[in-house]
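Researcher: I'm preparing a figure for a lab meeting and need a structural model of a single chain. I don't have an experimental structure, so a prediction will have to do for now. The sequence is pasted below. Please return the structure as tokens so I can convert it later.
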Amino acid sequence: MSILKKESTDKREIIENMERIIEEIKDVKNNMNMVTDEYLIDSCIYTLKALERQYQYYLIMARKSGITGFEKIG
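Model: Understood. Here is the structure written out token by token.
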């Protein structure tokens, strides 16, 4: 695999992961608005925090790769 193809694949994977995480965050926020049990609310909070950290990681990777258009969340 050439260096250019590898770089292109890496950028695509970063973007795909960031978009997936954004959708998962939306889903968790929707679920959190619907649950009433304190354990389920806690679970949503922990899941949301984990997704936000993953997004932060990919945001750093995106910036290093020259990818723009994504904003900080959380």
